Amino acid sequence: MDIREQNINIALAANEAKQVVLRFDEQTPAETNVTLALADGAHLDVVILQENVASGKRCVVRASQQSNSALSMSTITHHSSDIKNDVEVKLQGEGAELTLNGLYLTDNTENVDNKTVVYHEVGHCTTKQLYKGALDGESKASFAGMIIVQPDAQKTSAQQTNRNILVSPKAKVHAEPQLVIYADDVKCSHGATTGQLDPVQLFYMQQRGINEDAARRMLTAAYAAEVVALIPIEEVRERLTESLFEETI
Description:
single chain; 15% helix
């Protein structure tokens, strides 16, 4: 679905299953509001694609989940300037499962901001979150993630991970993962890492006739592939994998 409207509402009935791809381009409004509502037992896979978008865009997602529902959302930002993604999910029914994955690949002076807030309002719910970034040129990115576990949300399981590599010494990233826990019987973890491409791997590849620029692109593609492989929509996953590795040629 190419985004042409400012407000998008997707509501799933009990036990309904659906897959949705939301594509951003130059004709997408400057701000898009996406509302997702999952009834009991519903299953929704969402992929937000922001590829080669030159003008600034903001995507605001508000989601709610009822008992035993499953939401998987992947946000892919590639060669796009001044992108802001704001995601808020409320787990309101026991047994709800949430998967949030993000990938941002930046170059030149591009800027990408990702913010996520997840509310565990009841018990026995699960959140898995993985955001990865690779920054080149003089680009910038930020990740701010918060998981809030309310007092009644016992038996919560929540994992939040943010990983970044700086391909260029002039690139900058800011990571701020947070947990706020008011319950005492939970399994929660969070963390963030920032590093550079492995110089040993770069050296190894150059010794086998691959120039440094191509080696950097290949290592970046391999790094990004982890998130792409988690996309549950097969045709999107295959196209993005092909696109990533085409750039290494």
